[in-house]
């Protein structure tokens, strides 16, 4: 007799032999016990988690001849026939090779007849998502109202490819990956049963490589049994499966965290000598940092699928570093993985990226910095509320000097309507000890009822730019935001700013600015001009026969937005509290 691989030899035959999937097992056993088995059941999940195995166990349980509580017994004639593959009433079909409508028609013809030796006919279709649309349609009516002596069992790894009309007629069971601890315990028993010994760290490598799939893990174990002696070591697993030793990965992880450059590059040299797949290597390193990050997050220990001893090592290492540091280094590793996809020099990319990760210093949370700052400020002899005591006091100005400063600032509201300046609290000037007659005559006190004249304190505006001198810089500024708009501005024959605060753009050919003159583009250009020059400008196009003023197009909304921002009570209050002034006022789309 030919050799039976471990994946087939160790296949569960009863519910008690199935590892994991406890909610699904409980539901299936109760459905048999209470005689509530659905006529169509769909098992879905990744490879090797027991979909087809559960379908066969259910076929046994439905036709088992013992009491419902003990089904399947795996001892009666029906169970034995199904286990050996000799049952005439069990049809197991591969959906990939029998996917057409003709195969479904033949199947429908077979299920018309009563079972021969069992109580029910069981139809198992593996990889059911491979059926064609026509085959699914042919199965719909039979699946909705099957004969009383027929049960359907479906298995698939890609449930999203199954039509919703089929899904609605089935009872669905989603099988999960097997946890690492359960796989580890299961494989330990199998190794002992087969007469082998394997060190715990080597078995952990196999469990990790299985990725929650029982069949994948059994195949790897079978491969190790064929390679090694009665005792299997870490070195054997690494050599056979082409893996990077977990110790090497942990050593590299520690070196990246500690900033040990020599250890990082020596370990990298060791990995290159081993001819390790770089993509797989980077994935393993990222998985290490992900595990460390999860160790720092409270309540996320269940997301770490590792054996107990290895998990303890990760927790001890993670306790020495902040979550911000681990997250930063993990982000750099992810960026490195993207760079490797398009790199012609993968080794050089790895080395430079590792050097960048090493140089990334420990990240300190902002809250910690602020707490340190508070402690420093509290220890200073001079506090913020006594800062004015140490500042040099200004001597009161004479009335003549005060008059010279205020006179140019007395303006009418009409002339200051479009001046984009914040309202600053007016401080009362100190009265001179001896009034001067000349000053009192030249600056009469305004009447209380006359509000037509107002005194406004205007701060120096160092952020303003000159239109003529800074025009090329403005074009570069626009080009960074709208390339085509900068090209249209370069076609202008002349530019100038008049006394009214209008920016005149002269074009001899109207076609050179036809797109620029559209309302939304005109408004956007005005926003750019206000943001760059920091002065109230209105853009106006001067064409041979067209006078395109902003008012004509109703395009003065940027000015209104700017004025609203300047006069916003929060802005005025902030300027008063911090004794500051409004600098740049930006209303363009990038500022938003």
List unreliable stretches of 5+ residues: 383-394, 409-460, 551-555
CATH evolutionary superfamily of the largest domain: P-loop containing nucleotide triphosphate hydrolases
Mean pLDDT: 80
Binned, the helix content reads 40-55%
Q: In which order are the strands of the major sheet placed?
A: 2-3-4-1-5
* Beta-strand residue percentage: 5-15%
Q: Evaluate the radius of gyration.
A: 40 Å
Figure out the total of helices: 26
CATH topology of the largest domain: Rossmann fold
Supply the CATH architecture of the largest domain: 3-Layer(aba) Sandwich
Domains, number: 4
Structural class designation:
alpha/beta
Shape: elongated
Largest sheet: 5 strands, parallel
What is the number of beta strands? Answer: 13
Distance between the termini: 76 Å
CATH class of the largest domain: Alpha Beta
Give a description of the structure.
This protein has 592 residues and is of the alpha/beta class. The chain has four domains: 6-174, P-loop containing nucleotide triphosphate hydrolases (Rossmann fold, 3-Layer(aba) Sandwich); 180-241, Helicase, Ruva Protein, domain 3; 246-359, Zinc Finger, Delta Prime, domain 3, CATH 1.20.272; 471-577, GMP Synthetase, Chain A, domain 3, CATH 3.30.300. The chain contains 26 helices and 13 strands. It starts with 5 loop residues before the first helix and ends in a 15-residue tail after the last helix.
